[in-house]
Amino acid sequence: MASIAISASLQRAYSSYHIAKKQQPQPKLARSLGTKQASTNAVTLKVEGQTSLGVTEQVQDKSGSRIDELGNAENTAKDGAETESSGMKFTDQRWKNGIWDLNMFVKDGKVNWDGLIVAEATRRKFLELFPEAATNQDPVLFKSSIIPWWAWLKRSYLPEAELLNGRAAMVGFFIAYAVDALTGLDVVGQTGSFICKAGVFATVVGVILFRRTKDFDNLKKLADEATLYDKQWQSSWQDQKEKKV
Amino acid sequence: MTSIALKSFVGLRQSSPEKNPHFTTTTQAKPLTFTVQNPRKLRVVAGKFSPKVAGRNLRVAVIGGGPAGGSAAETLVKGGIETILIERKLDNCKPCGGAIPLCMVGEFDLPLDIIDRKVTKMKMISPSNVAVDIGQTLKPHEYIGMVRREVLDSYLRDRAKENGATVINGLFLKMDMPKEENSPYVLHFTEYDGKVGGVGVRKTLEVDAVIGADGANSRVAKSIGAGDYEYAIAFQERVKIPDDKMVYYENLAEMYVGDDVSPDFYGWVFPKCDHVAVGTGTVTHKGDIKKFQLATRNRAKDKILGGKIIRVEAHPIPEHPRPRRLAGRVALVGDAAGYVTKCSGEGIYFAAKSGRMCAEAIVEGSEKGKRMVNEGDLRKYLEKWDKTYWPTYKVLDVLQKVFYRSNPAREAFVEMCADEYVQKMTFDSYLYKRVVPGNPLDDLKLAVNTIGSLIRANALRREMEKLSV
User: Fold this and answer.
1) Of the candidates B249, B245, B247, which has an alpha carbon nearest to the alpha carbon of residue B269?
2) Contact, B301 vs B309, CB < 8 A?
3) Is B299 in contact with A131 (Cβ distance < 8 A)?
4) Residue ranges of chain A with pLDDT lower than 50?
5) Out of A152, B251, B321, B349, which could bridge B338 as a Cys pair, Cβ 3.0 to 4.6 Å?
6) Residue pLDDT, tens place only, B342-378
7) What are phi and psi of B202, to 5 degrees?
């Protein structure tokens, strides 16, 4: 819900026409904005006309986030009441006939893929909480493959990035120190040595592969899981071998 | 080795007037050891080790009259073996999906009228309700047959009976192991005379070998200490739906995947003769099966609206073969051995096929019922089985592990199934049970696409974790 409210408010911010208006009473309607469609379609045309709207945008964003909170509170109250009936249906003004309407995601003349990813994630999360009956009348046509690869890449973020950088730097510094002390080769000299470069590479790969202690366990578990079925099948041949021995 | 061989002479002498037709050269290596010990007898043992059975043919009992038992009994009796089939309930309708691949119709010579429906379309529905139609690549004569188990089972059993097998309506209780080599197994069972509620008569039966085809709760397996397997529980409701809704399921089966439906399997709607079967299965969360069943029904809500549940069934599905599938002259086949594939949960064809393969091994080892069989003869069946089907089982296990793991993986699975190349390969291997090597370029493309789908779906999963709806 959060994302819907935010992006709705962003779109509003772009068309200067809306800024003059007071937006506060709008939030409650945010989920069923039938009337908004005309103006959002117009956004594509008006892109050039917006340059110095930074401040108002911020203001709008703030109001947007407040809208969320309101919306969230409303939703949770509703959810609590309706969990049993499972009659919840996912609705979003940008979700039309089983597909995301890309025209509604346009920002600065380009499709806002980030917004689309968030919207689809929201939809999937919603469906996980409230599984919907699959009908033949309105099939889902949206395919995540239409989102280009760089949009995914931009959003990928390693949570342990800081930790890993720090660890690699500390290991590198300590080894550089040790190598210097042992061989007398200074840091500047080390950067020129092939062996030292290879050592740096190996360290970086090692740091990435084994990020946490539980990675060791995970790798072991994966290996076990991969071989379990083979073991289950081979057991009928084991007692024959024992007999022979 | 020597002890078996020496004993074998006793039997052979008794029936020595009967000439051994199988004076083959294939067993050259074995008689050579005899020439050292007892050169005089070389002429007689040239065929096989085991003694001939005197005055009768080899007697084999088949416990259980499902597809495995039925086809085993038929093959045995056709191979000249005295066959006794013991089935507890002759009109038993087992809870089962009832799908058979096309090749089974040909291989087992099944009449077309036992097939209720010919499924030519499959719909796979992902957790986010993306539906993919599978089956456009099917040729006009290709289909998945849907049968009712009571019909198929009794057909196979009757065919064995026509060929000369003795079918006993009885409940197998236990068996006594032979004390000496080559002495018979004594089976204890209760025979019913077919009257409802009639008290059975306890009887015993002496047989030379036993094929255990008595399903997941196999008593034969228990009596040979075959060990346990993990099992999945499958729950199924037969739902009679209004005629106008039934039109949709005319030749279409549906598969639902998702955490709501089953954490490690799939939910299904299969068309039956005049109703549909709605069900789901799981290994890991057996206690929640009712919840998953409700979820399956909810997912198919609109399509089965107004349906009446006419029967509710639940049954165990083995996950992997038992630790021992063979002991002495007792072999397990079908569900009793644990031959159900992962991922698709298919078992009828493999049961019938394993029954036949085991029976073939016995017929061959006994030289059409003339000789005693031993464990080595039955091992041949295991060897052949594992060689033929192990790759199929392994591939399906890998598929299940990769694609039924989580919701994003399932999304990727459904996305992958939309690909025509995948559909062609899947149906070819399902319908004909043979692995056809694909086009390497297409394989590569498929691998890249699948990895792409998996990455995308998992990226979305991470986005979902950040959100709070």
Assistant:
1) B249
2) no
3) yes
4) 1-85
5) B321
6) 888 888 999 999 999 999 999 999 888 888 888 888 9
7) -80, 130
